[in-house]
Design a protein that fits this description.
Blueprint lengths: L10 H13 L6 H13 L6 E3 L2 H11 L7 E5 L5 H8 L3 E5 L11 H7 L4 E7 L8 H11 L2 E5 L15 E5 L12 E5 L2 H10 L8 H5 L19 H35 L22 E4 L6 H10 L15 H6 L6 H9 E4 L7 H16 L1
Parallel strand pairs: 2-3, 2-4, 4-5, 5-6
Antiparallel strand pairs: 1-7, 6-7, 8-9
Helix pairs in contact: 1-9, 2-9, 3-4, 3-7, 9-13, 10-13
């Protein structure tokens, strides 16, 4: 089976885990700190905070920016549900925003403008499929309205850009991401005070950690804020350090494979489109996290997916629209996002990861062409 996503794990990760086990220290310690600094450096930041998941990082970013009850937060519906869940964890209200178009399925600034109210306090921009949202546009949008700007960068690890443009950016290391720690996430913030709050809140709001007390820097601790158990352990950090060394090379291969997909789909599946094919004024930077394909109108997506599976190829959907999930629909019944809904009806995610070769892409495209022709 050719999988949609597959982690690249090997001897380096095994050796890194063995070193942690042999050290006898497996909770948050020196490796976590080393991973934070290495990840920050890779993303042209001075510091970062490792957490137990991207979801935890989004929640902490909300809390650190004092987003809470009575506040509204502009969010996409085309994202994983954790993006919007984190708004509710903070006690705020999500306000769903449509995407620009089927070719640019990033949150629409124009639609966001129509959704702003006196209660709007923040906007969460998601770099769907690894494609970078326009930082200049969103910074201007947020600044003009006095809003906090948060980047959901779950798809964007290793994306080549100057640095984060939001007040905070949160990354994911789940097993299907460009690099993985099995579970885990990272927070980068432009304001060191915000990052310090995230760092303290991830560990119960305590003023010192276990390793600090062991090393004699402090005998006890205080709790000065409401905190959570959102820490990363040494085992995951060790895997992260090993993965990070390969991230740039893996992303370059993802880019090459995406180019092959675009070329072959134009030839063999001309009615199938790949988002971001029609570039705007400047090319869209990307980490090429997934390969979303838009099927022709009227195509039976489930039937296509079944035929692809019969051919030994896994496909997926990124994503079902959040506002149409039962739990959200019962609470936000009047939300209509026509472009998001059209995109989500027709999107089919094809395999894309560094273990694939060009011949695998050819196999996928041939199978898709056959499935559509039938």
């Amino acid at each position: 089976m050719l999988l949609v996503a597959e982690p690249s794990l090997g001897e380096d990760e095994k050796a890194a885990l063995a070193e942690v086990v042999d050290s006898g220290w497996i909770t948050m310690g020196d490796r976590v700190r080393a991973f934070e600094l290495a990840f920050a450096d890779e993303h042209r930041a001075t510091d970062a905070v490792a957490v137990s998941s991207c979801t935890a990082g989004l929640h902490l970013a909300m809390q650190a920016l004092d987003i809470g009850p009575g506040d509204e937060v502009l969010v996409p519906s085309l994202t994983f549900v954790a993006t919007v869940n984190s708004v509710l964890y903070a006690g705020a209200t999500p306000v769903f925003v449509d995407v620009e178009s089927l070719d640019v399925p990033l949150m629409s600034c124009a639609d966001a403008d129509t959704k702003c109210t006196a209660r709007t306090k923040a906007v969460v921009v998601m770099h769907y499929a690894g494609y970078l949202a326009d930082g200049d546009v969103w910074r201007d949008f947020a600044h003009a309205r006095g809003l906090h700007l948060i980047e959901d960068a779950a798809h964007a690890a290793g994306l080549d850009r100057p640095s984060v443009f939001g007040d905070a950016a949160v990354f994911s290391f789940f097993g299907n991401k460009n690099m993985t720690t099995a579970e885990g996430g990272m927070v980068i913030a432009r304001d060191q005070d915000v990052l310090d709050r995230v760092k303290q809140m991830r560990s119960h709001g305590m003023t010192t950690g276990t390793l600090q007390r062991l090393s004699g820097h402090s005998l006890t601790y205080d709790v000065t804020m409401l905190g959570y158990n959102y820490r990363m352990d040494e085992l995951r950090a060790a895997i992260g350090l090993a993965q990070l060394r390969n991230l740039r090379r893996w992303n370059e291969k993802r880019e090459r494979l995406t180019g092959v997909y675009r070329r072959l789909l134009r030839t063999h599946c001309p009615d199938v489109s790949v988002p971001f094919s029609t570039q705007r004024n400047t090319p869209v930077a990307s980490s090429y996290h997934i390969l979303p394909a838009i099927l022709p109108k009227g195509a039976d997506r489930q039937l296509v997916a079944d035929r692809m599976r019969d051919a030994g190829i896994q496909t997926s959907v990124h994503y079902p629209p959040i506002h149409r999930f039962s739990w959200y629909q019962s609470r936000f019944p009047s939300v209509l996002l026509p472009k998001t809904e059209e995109f989500c009806r027709r999107e089919l995610t094809l395999p894309l990861h560094p273990k694939l070769e060009e011949r695998d892409v050819e196999t996928v495209v041939d199978a898709l062409a056959e499935a559509l022709s039938r």
